[in-house]
Amino acid sequence: MTTNQKSLNVDARFALPDNDCEQQATPDVEIIEFDYSKRSQWLRAAVLGATDGLVSIGSLMMGVGAVKQDVKAMILTGCAGLVAGACSMAIGEFVSVQSQLDIERLRRTNEGDREKLPNPAQASAASAVAFAIGAAVPLLAASFIGEYKLRLGVVVGAVTVALVLFGWLGAVLGKAPIIKSSLTILIGGWFAMAITFGLTKLIGASGL
């Protein structure tokens, strides 16, 4: 009996530190995973913003190209769309993050937690930059080509390559099927450009 009691006491003594070590190690793993997830969300939002700029400005330039062969008109329209779209994205993101920040401030009281809250100015700037990067692709593609049909083809080609790239990045960051995600974004971008080109051509032909 005495021997059994001693062995139980020894086991009990050494069991506690193991549990403590496991409890201390668990939060570290969770923090690392949370930080990775947070970075992935920011990167994925940037990819979506760039895709928005790419499709919006590409479609806008195709719409102008449907009724005007002048390269200057296409470039100026694309530049105006880039500035307007980037400002719109920045304002929308600022309002969205600021609203989220106000709600979170009511729930948190710890100073350390406040430092981890999202920054509205940073989010709005990132959104505007991402939109501008995507919008710059069709603009740069059309800037140095004077021939009308070739210019439209180069814009479509550049947008297509960028859409596949952004679709791949979004799928990797969102852990989604790569081929399906890339094809979805690509077909959506083609559809947007085709609809914009066709409707603008129709409106221009009607004499409005």
From TrEMBL:
<dbReference type="Pfam" id="PF01988">
    <property type="entry name" value="VIT1"/>
</dbReference>
<feature type="transmembrane region" description="Helical">
    <location>
        <begin position="73"/>
        <end position="97"/>
    </location>
</feature>
<dbReference type="GO" id="GO:0005774">
    <property type="term" value="C:vacuolar membrane"/>
</dbReference>
<dbReference type="GO" id="GO:0005381">
    <property type="term" value="F:iron ion transmembrane transporter activity"/>
</dbReference>
<keyword id="KW-0812">Transmembrane</keyword>
<feature type="transmembrane region" description="Helical">
    <location>
        <begin position="45"/>
        <end position="67"/>
    </location>
</feature>
<keyword id="KW-0408">Iron</keyword>
<dbReference type="InterPro" id="IPR008217">
    <property type="entry name" value="Ccc1_fam"/>
</dbReference>
<protein>
    <recommendedName>
        <fullName>Vacuolar iron transporter</fullName>
    </recommendedName>
</protein>
<feature type="transmembrane region" description="Helical">
    <location>
        <begin position="123"/>
        <end position="146"/>
    </location>
</feature>
<feature type="transmembrane region" description="Helical">
    <location>
        <begin position="183"/>
        <end position="203"/>
    </location>
</feature>
<dbReference type="GO" id="GO:0030026">
    <property type="term" value="P:intracellular manganese ion homeostasis"/>
</dbReference>
<comment type="function">
    <text>Vacuolar Fe(2+) uptake transporter.</text>
</comment>
<keyword id="KW-0926">Vacuole</keyword>
<keyword id="KW-0813">Transport</keyword>
<feature type="transmembrane region" description="Helical">
    <location>
        <begin position="152"/>
        <end position="171"/>
    </location>
</feature>
<keyword id="KW-0472">Membrane</keyword>
<dbReference type="GO" id="GO:0140315">
    <property type="term" value="F:iron ion sequestering activity"/>
</dbReference>
<keyword id="KW-0410">Iron transport</keyword>
<keyword id="KW-0406">Ion transport</keyword>
<dbReference type="GO" id="GO:0005384">
    <property type="term" value="F:manganese ion transmembrane transporter activity"/>
</dbReference>
<comment type="similarity">
    <text>Belongs to the CCC1 family.</text>
</comment>
<keyword id="KW-1133">Transmembrane helix</keyword>
